Amino acid sequence: SRVVVYISDSISGRIREDLMDDDFSSVWVELGTPGAGKKILVANIYRDHQWMNQGQDKSSKSDASVMKRWLVYLDQWTKALDSGSEVHALGDFNINSNTLLGKNGSQQQPLVNKLLQKIVPLGVSQCAPKHTWTPQGNQRGQPSGLDHHWTNRPDKLSEVMALTVGQSDHKLFSIELVGVKKT
Question: How confident is the model at residue 183, as a pLDDT?
């Protein structure tokens, strides 16, 4: 996996292995503040274009393999939403969120269609800013929204900001949950 999660000492958290699978790079955690009864589920993801260290074997890059991994993740997400919890899914989706609702004919369109069919009808909204990735050095392309933040409770968010930090081509999200007491 290409995902690492750090949980501050001021937050109670536990890994939700029941929501994770070796076939998709995600880390699901259940978070709360000490003494608070209600917990939230947070998924941190990286949608791989293909498996790492595959050498000459490029089968993990095929459209069928990419879709199979994506469906694993959408099933994780559906299970999390079915729990009745507040759910946040964020990370590098490697899908330009600025083109989600348009038929852009891209290779990711079948993935977008599955997302729109399986997740959006469950009351989930994309809340990340428009530009979360900016090409650097010899990278090609225009700034885009490769990094997403989806939630079934957008009403509980302050403005989601994307901040440039260090040398990364991806921006850091800054999100504050409304009504959560700071410690």
Answer: 46
Check: CB of residue 143 under 8 Å from CB of residue 154. Answer: no
Distance CA 25, CA 4 (A): 10
Task: Please report how many Cα atoms fall inside a 13 Å half-sphere around the Cα of residue 152, on the Cβ side.
Answer: 19
The tokens for 105 are: 């004919």
Q: Show the tokens assigned to 53.
A: 């260290």
Which residue in 159, 88, 89 sits closest to 130, CA to CA?
159
What are 147's strand-pairing partners? 92
Q: Which residue has the higher pLDDT, 129 or 71?
A: 71
- CB neighbours of 2 closer than 8 A, spacing ≥ 6? 25, 46, 48, 52
Could you give the C-alpha distances from 112 to 89, 94, 105, 107, 135, in angstroms and in order? Answer: 15, 11, 11, 10, 22
**Locus of tokens 């990340």:** 128
79 and 19 in contact (C-beta within 8 Å)?
yes
- Indicate yes or no: pTM above 0.90: no
Determine the Cα–Cα distance for residues 182 and 120; give it in Å rounded to an integer. Answer: 30
